[in-house]
From TrEMBL:
Source organism of the structure: Neptuniibacter pectenicola
Protein name, per record: SoxXA-binding protein SoxK
Coiled coil: 52-83
Leader sequence segment: 1-20
Record keywords, A-Z: Coiled coil, Signal
């Protein structure tokens, strides 16, 4: 009986272990299954499925908070632009965030600034991936 339970437990848990080999895999799997702000366990520690930009935007919608997040987004976008991996639509999002601040729509501005910062961060990740894997683009 105990052997059967152990085998059943191993078979039931094996796909979970195989599917979540890295933190990134575990995060993305839980994010896809449960959406943002879900708590999951990876290697014995608790994490949430919130991107850092979402956490930064989840503050009180004030002019100061919106301007601060917009400044961070602009700085991150300048960083990725220096690398040559700025995404085409990010500047427009930054402009829209500034417009929202000017109109007093601070929640909208926070969300747009968070989106722009996320795009810039993904551009930086794209740059590092391209630097490490450039040879994959070379015809054989």
């Amino acid at each position: 009986m105990n052997k059967g339970l152990i085998i059943a437990a191993v078979l039931a848990l094996a796909p979970t272990f195989a599917a979540a080999e890295s933190f990134k895999d575990a995060f993305e799997m839980n994010r896809a299954m449960y959406g943002k702000n879900h708590t999951f366990t990876w290697q014995g520690k608790q994490y949430t499925t919130m991107h850092e930009e979402e956490a930064e935007a989840a503050v009180k919608a004030t002019k100061a908070n919106a301007e601060a997040l917009l400044a961070k987004a602009k700085a991150k976008n300048a960083e990725v632009a220096k690398l040559g991996y700025e995404w085409k639509l990010t500047r427009g999002i930054l402009t829209n965030a500034q417009t929202a601040i000017d109109k007093g729509e601070y929640r909208k501005a926070l969300n747009l600034a968070a989106q722009a910062k996320y795009h810039a961060r993904m551009g930086i990740q794209q740059y590092h991936y391209a630097q490490a894997n450039w040879y994959l683009a070379v015809p054989q």
